[in-house]
Amino acid sequence: MSTELSELTSVGLVTKESPIQVKKGAKPLHVGLPKEISTQENRVVLTPEAVGLLSNNDIQVIVESGAGLHAKFKDQDYSDAGAKIVYSRKEVLSAEVVLKVDPLTIEEIAEMSPGSCLISALQLEKQDAEFIKALNDKKITAVAFEYLEDKVGGMPVVRAMSEIAGSTVMLIAAEYLSSVNEGKGLILGGVTGVPPTQVVIIGAGTVAEYAARTAIGLGANIKIFDNHIYKLRRIKQLLGQQIYTSTIDNYSLGQALAEADVVIGALRAEKGRNKIVVTEEMVANMIHGGIIIDVGIDQGGCIETARMTTHDDPVYKVHDIIHYCVPNIASRVARTASYSLSNIFTPIILQMSDLGGAEEMIFNYKWFLRGVYTYRGSLTNAFLARKFGLNHKELQLLLAARY
């Protein structure tokens, strides 16, 4: 018995000793790739190269015309790779599996086939009970790709997008420090005879790691804060530098913020919404003309004065401090981000096809099960149930009853 089956047996999902029967010879898997309708989202989940691989394995990919244009992929690229290009959004959404970056709207959910599978971001701060109800009314199996795990317990989509966001965030800071954008008129880093810029990074995860690498490469001084000592120790080892690190307390953090030119909010909530660690008073005490970038704004952010903005109108000022709070920073580099997403989801779709569908993926792979939040008419995520005041059912029990 495989490791995955052993894990499921331990929690009572598998009662037989014989292996699960894989549904070979079933009809080919149909995957829909709709165009993103949000003007803020430029990424696409599958690249033409990935579609070519899937097509070679008898998976039919239905692509809505224009789905890849913002990432500089043409319809012809997808067509040459074996995709079916359609102009009907309903035809794409009626596929057995729908892959999308932004969550679907309630109107789009209504056009999905009953019992099909949606794989997209959940974007918790944007959702409400009506969204969950719409999924359950259609008995959609919905998978939040930010909750998906890999076989070693990591979160591949979160990590990939965090790497991109961390690398990009310091370039954004450099833009808004310049005089052209009414910043302090500083170069990010430093030059001979001029003190380097001061960067404070709150959080010591992947975003912080890549932001710190970029800042160090440009010559900035950095200070990293986090309440987990093991994360601080890890990031020092990864960076290979004797950098300033500290746990989060009002005095040390407030003092660092008062001297900072750039503040990066890179805390990620472990469960639910982020906690505020930077108060408005701390922001008011910063040097005027500085910049705050709250990367975790989609989870509520960790800075009291932060509120969600868009790529069209990305910044605002509070106490003469520039705030940049766009939730999907990776969308600024849509082609790179699309390749990164495609690298993650191509093998998942291949596995799904081999097994016979999304339901078999849930049953066979615990790491995939982690991303499921609605299943055949039931909400299966306890946190979402508490947030929206809804009832939920444990997914393991639903699967056990079904099998």
What features would you describe in this structure?
With 403 residues, this protein is of the alpha/beta class. The chain has 2 domains: 30-147 and 333-401, NAD(P)-binding Rossmann-like Domain (Rossmann fold); 163-327, Rossmann fold (3-Layer(aba) Sandwich). 37% of the residues lie in helices and 14% in strands. It has helices spanning 3-10, 48-56, 75-80, 89-93, 106-110, 129-137, 156-177, 206-218, 229-239, 250-258, 280-284, 334-355, 358-364, 366-369, 382-388, 395-402, and strands at residues 30-33, 60-64, 84-86, 97-99, 117-120, 141-144, 198-202, 221-225, 244-246, 262-265, 291-294, 315-318, 321-324, 372-375, 378-379. The strands form 2 sheets. The chain has an 8-stranded mixed sheet with strand order 3-2-1-4-5-6-14-15, with helices on both faces. Helix 9 (229-239) links the parallel strand 8 and strand 9. Helix 2 packs parallel to helix 12 (334-355) and helix 7 (156-177) runs antiparallel to helix 12. The longest helix has 22 residues, at 156-177. Residues 1-25 have low confidence and may be disordered. Belongs to the AlaDH/PNT family. InterPro entries: Ala_DH, AlaDH/PNT_N, AlaDH/PNT_NAD(H)-bd, NAD(P)-bd_dom_sf. Its EC number is 1.4.1.1. This is alanine dehydrogenase. Residues 177-325 form the Alanine dehydrogenase/pyridine nucleotide transhydrogenase NAD(H)-binding domain.
Question: Could you give a short description of this structure?
Answer:
37% of the residues lie in helices and 14% in strands.
Percent helix, as a range, is 25-40%
Tally of discrete structural domains: 2
Poorly predicted runs: 1-25
Q: What's the number of helices? A: 16
Distance between the termini: 17 Å
CATH architecture of the largest domain: 3-Layer(aba) Sandwich
Q: Strand percentage, roughly? A: 5-15%
Average pLDDT across residues? 89
Fourth-tier CATH superfamily name of the largest domain: NAD(P)-binding Rossmann-like Domain
Whole-number radius of gyration? Answer: 23 Å
Largest sheet: 8 strands, mixed
Structural class: alpha/beta
Question: How many beta-strand segments?
Answer: 15
Provide the spatial order of strands within the biggest beta sheet: 3-2-1-4-5-6-14-15
The 3D shape can be described as: globular
